[in-house]
Design goal:
The chain is of the alpha+beta class. It has helices at 2-17, 28-49, 67-74, 121-129, 133-137; strands spanning 82-94, 97-103, 113-119, 138-163, 169-191.
């Protein structure tokens, strides 16, 4: 009887005193997702503060796009800026002015957009101060785009012929072509999550 009572006390103590194996401390995964949520809320707040258009990309539904498609998406007649998630390719200082060259990582077509943006020194310095590659290149920016144009990268066409023993030939034609460029000004910026 004493043995059963002792075992019951030990089991009861472990069940109630040791816990159920869950910790009140959030896991690393939970902390990461909480940080991502916080960053996304901060980006939404930034967009709201500047009355930035966040769904500008809905105008890019044509494939392949023409210059006018990008102009309608980027150039606002109401003067409102855009919230754009970018990958910073380069930061430069020319004649005392900072500039960013960036791309839009989630390409909306096979014809990429390269952004050339003038930016305030404090934003350029924040980008340059980031410690690793992801932090240096992943940003959400509020921008005012002033121009969009198509820049032909040169028309290149080549054909690869692969011959078989029979009468069937296989050939592959490849044409490389356009890149769209947009210029404008950065109004505000902050790092964005993966």
């Amino acid at each position: 009887m004493k043995r059963i009572l002792l075992i019951s006390l030990l089991l009861g103590g472990c069940l109630f005193g040791c816990g159920t194996g869950t910790s009140s401390e959030p896991s690393k995964v939970d902390k990461y997702f909480a940080a991502v949520d916080e960053m996304n809320r901060a980006i939404e707040d930034m967009a709201s503060r500047h009355r930035a258009v966040i769904d500008w990309d809905k105008k890019l539904s044509f494939e392949p796009p023409f210059s006018i498609d990008y102009q309608q998406a980027f150039l606002r007649t109401d003067g409102r800026p855009l919230l754009v998630k970018i990958k910073v390719e380069d930061v430069e200082l020319v004649h005392g002015r900072y500039g960013i060259t960036a791309s839009i990582p989630d390409s909306y077509s096979d014809f990429p957009v390269e952004l050339h943006l003038e930016c305030p020194p404090d934003i350029a310095n924040r980008i340059l101060a980031a410690q690793n590659g992801y932090e240096r290149e992943r940003w959400a920016v509020v921008v005012h785009i002033t121009s969009v144009r198509r820049r032909d990268c040169g028309y290149r066409e080549f054909t690869i012929n692969i011959y078989s023993e029979g009468d069937n030939d296989f050939s592959f034609d490849f044409t490389a072509g356009a890149l769209f460029e947009a210029t404008g000004n950065v109004i505000d910026a902050m790092p964005r999550p993966l």
